Predict the 3D structure of the following.
Amino acid sequence: MPAAQPPHKPATELAPAADRYRMTALAIREHPRFEVSDVEVKRSGPSYTVDTLVALQDRGRLHLVIGSETFLDLLNWKDPRGVAALARLVVVPRNGLDFDPELPAALKVLGELGLPGFVRASAEVPDGPAPLLLYAASLPISGSDLRRRAREKRSLAFRMPESVASYIRDHHLYSPEE
């Protein structure tokens, strides 16, 4: 779900929201269980997760998948308790980074959000508010790295679907003004 106005990124670093929406649609088009949403693109003002979760709450039980670094920063978000109340958190540590759910920083976030300790995601996940800890393979790729590579006209191969890389090239996204 692309954000129209991410509150944590300068607009000058990003492609226009309509282009980011189209790239997301291209990226998932071969994955029938995925869908792209324009909820945030259509809404005016900054895109805050809590507002998006409110808009989506009629769709059933929501899960919010975030990286472990994002989890540790959650208290700086708009209405973090609201976020945790509206969606079950699924925390995925990035490969190569240690994340100990018992560290004081993680326990502080859990305490401030009023959440019990983590449950390790498995085939039998109990229902409830406890955040899920999901270890999954991931590549060491970040959006800022991809934008930098595109700006420098470096290869994006094996980092994103070719259809998205072509879109970036064809629409001259992330290129310095010439």
